[in-house]
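Subject: Re: docking follow-up (pyridoxal-5'-phosphate)

Dear J.,

Thanks for your patience while I sorted out the input files. As discussed at Tuesday's group meeting, I've set up the holo structure prediction with pyridoxal-5'-phosphate included as the bound ligand rather than trying to dock it afterwards. The sequence and the ligand SMILES I used are pasted below, so you can double-check that they match what you have on your end before we go further.
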Amino acid sequence: MGRFLDESDFMMVEEGFTTRDLLENLLLEVSQMGDRDAFFLADLGDVVKKHLRFLKVLPRVKPFYAVKCNGSKGVVQTLAELGTGFSCTSKAEIALVQSTGVPPDKIICTGPCKPVSQIKYAAGCGVQLMTFDNEVELGKVARSHPRARMILQLASDNSRSSTCLSMKFGATLKSCRHLMETAKDMSVEIVGVSFHVRSGSIDPQTFTQSIADARLVFEMGTELGYKMHFLDIGGGFPGTEVSKARFEETAAVINSALDFYFPEGCGVEVIAELGRYYVTSAFTLAVSIATKKEVSLDQPGSDDEDSGSRKSFMYYVNDGVYGSFSHIIFDNVCPIPILHKKPSPDHPMYSSSLWGPTGDDLDRITDGLELPELQSGDWMMFENMGAYSISASSTFRISQQPQINYAMSRVAWKAVQLLQGKLLQPEEEERESICTPLSCGWEMTDTLCVAPVFAPASIT
Ligand SMILES: *Cc1c(COP(=O)(O)O)cnc(C)c1O
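The structure tokens for the complex came back this morning:
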């Protein structure tokens, strides 16, 4: 039994089975019941795996979870159980995290322009850490939350990032001194610096530059009499399995920049705000076809002999861009379905497109697919659907959101308990027996076999 998550919160996947088997079973069940609603399968064990990988690769950085990325209860519970902190951008997110039982000293309130009601709410809950990047924000905080401990958010050079929104957020290096002097006049406390390299930035050196900038701002703050001891390196780390190498490469660059600018023992607590990294690969969405339309591809005037096969299909499925696929617009991704019924290789293929249920022109999930002819009622799956598909506020509008089925392997569940010290540090000779079940393909067995490296991320 965990404090935040226990075995009744998810389906236990026993050894010899995979979450994929579980998904097949669920699909069989819904097909038999004639059920047609889209649903998620969330592999919480995958979240655990990401956590262990993070601790191993960035040992000096305490992970915080950016709730805006996926506000599902199971993810929040799992990460609370693992001892991460949480970063929240709204009242609903703070409420969700607090209702799970997370204490306020593990919550940061982020977002560049917070409504006063949110600042007051944070103050009322005892959440002290907040980010800011402008004077207006400081004024609001001085009036509504005098005990806040502020983190100055720096703009980071994201000119190479694929979604070039970066310049909207963060103070420039030039404006920092003025902002900190203003804070001093208002008696607002500043404790550190944050930055956020937006995902899609292919250059890990952006982190080196941002960490170097943060060092300068630490020095300015110290000169002004602030006790600077908190560095938040943001998120943006990729969350698919294929990007693991890129993550590790970025981590190596971060580690050396930290060692250079914030060497171990300098008294600075380093955190990251991870969103997509934790959840992307954990969620698979299953949708079914509600309607199909046949479209003739023949151009007027062209007389193609084999026009017989020149047809294409539009499939309308039961979730779309206004629902779980909203992230495809700003992340510029092209989701690829996995068909539930495996087609035989000699089936003719047709150009096909997938559409959400609204009938709106913008509600296009993907097109240009080559698929065999499908029927309404057929199911398909989309992997890597965990990031920016489920928000905390829509958790309260359950009817509009696909149901989430949570699962975790027995191995991962043991790892959770081991990490928390629930399985007490085994004696030398017992160690092997405890590590055995954890070694089935888990690259981080070595992490698990040593004393828990992880001190829960509370802020001092
Ligand atoms: C959204 C956000 C994150 C998380 O971003 P991911 O790309 O999902 O990791 C981290 N930090 C800040 C400031 C954010 O706004």
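A couple of observations from a first look. The two ends are 28 Å apart (CA to CA). The pocket of pyridoxal-5'-phosphate is lined by residues 66, 68-69, 110, 196, 199, 234-237, 273-277, 387 (CB under 6 Å).

Let me know if you'd like me to rerun anything.

Best regards,
T.
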